[in-house]
Amino acid sequence: MSSDHYLSIPTPTDFSFKECLVYLNRSSQEVLHKAEGELIIKLLNVNQSFVLIKIRSKENAIIAELPFGKVNKETGDLITKYIHEWFDLNKDMTDFYAMAQNDPVLTNIVSRHRGLRIVGIPDLFEALTWAVIGQQINLTFAYTLKKRFVEHFGKSFEYDGQLYWLYPDCHQIASLDVSHLKKLQFTTRKAEYVIGIAKSIVSRAITKEALLQMDYEGMKNSLMKLRGVGAWTADYVMLRCLLQPQAFPSADIGIHHALRKHLELDQKPTTNYVEELSKKWGDWRAYAAFYLWRSQLE
DNA sequence: AGCCAGGTGTACA
DNA sequence: TGTACACATGGC
């Protein structure tokens, strides 16, 4: 059910737009979308054109309103695909909920936030570089760096008196010099990693399509060939971008804090301990991770 | 003021 | 294979 001016995208059972909103709203410095109450406004790049979408939820559907109307079928399909990946709509969560119900760590968290899915980052370049930006710095500063990065190198579109931003294009970032990013307070290493990743994407040394053909181990190894991408980043990208249910960033400090709280440990768990613990979640480790992150908000 | 942060690469046993 | 350490800079 769609028209020129909106797309209606059916949502599965056990989907909560509100839970996604909490995650999307976790930083007031986010520049890649704006939240107005129950509405999310975002600028997309669809076949090199700006497309502004206003997203809201209705019973059993997400409505994507297109204020400028008139998109052709191909564009509509691409927007729909993006939203499916953004909100992880293609997943049947039944087995996860059955498993979580009997899991001492997950049972409370999952029942409290039921309907939450992974909030995805469909673009591979964005997912990789956002992960690298966030390495070894606190999330507040990570968002500061991302905002500077986007506002310096991304394109914007003004709507209703507000600026909406696209994530920078990998071709432009590939042509930068380390000094350009150091001015934004990137460390030398981080600047090298981001530029290097941009070059790998431009040269198609790594592509989302090829990664999606691989199994978990192959995918992880391929990602880790990129300089600056270690185990944590590889799993983070497999979780947020490639929507791999087995992905689990064991070294993640947010997961460590969450587990410390829920298991009432007197200190942070070690990465090895967390890695071992995660194995009991099997092919649902990514969802365990996401719910653990969610449990630290609000 | 000093520890910590959504880690990674490198050196070395 | 496993551990130690530099990196660099802001947040709190």
How would you describe what is shown here?
- It contains 15 helices and 7 strands.
- The strands form 2 sheets. The protein has a 5-stranded antiparallel beta sheet with strand order 1-5-4-3-2, covered by helices on one side.
- Helix 5 (124-133) packs antiparallel against helix 9 (188-202), helix 5 (124-133) packs across helix 12 (231-240) and helix 13 crosses helix 15.
- The mean pLDDT is 96.
- By secondary structure, it is α+β, with helices and mostly antiparallel strands.
- The two termini are 35 Å apart.
- The protein has helices at 17-24, 73-86, 94-101, 106-112, 124-133, 139-153, 170-174, 178-182, 188-202, 208-212, 216-224, 231-240, 253-263, 271-278, 285-295, and strands at residues 6-10, 34-36, 39-46, 49-58, 61-65, 156-159, 162-165.
- The structure holds a DNA duplex (13 and 12 nucleotides).
Low-confidence segments, ≥5 residues, pLDDT <50? none
Quick check: average pLDDT?
96
Mass-distribution shape: globular
Number of helices: 15
- Total DSSP E strands: 7
Level of helix content? 40-55%
SSE pattern, N- to C-terminal? EHEEEEHHHHHEEHHHHHHHHH
Sheet/helix structural class: alpha+beta
| CA gyration radius, whole angstroms | 19 Å
N-C termini distance: 35 Å
The side-by-side strand order for the widest beta sheet comes to 1-5-4-3-2
The profile of the biggest β sheet is: 5 strands, antiparallel
Beta-strand percentage? 5-15%
How would you describe the oligomerization state of the chains in this entry? Answer: single chain
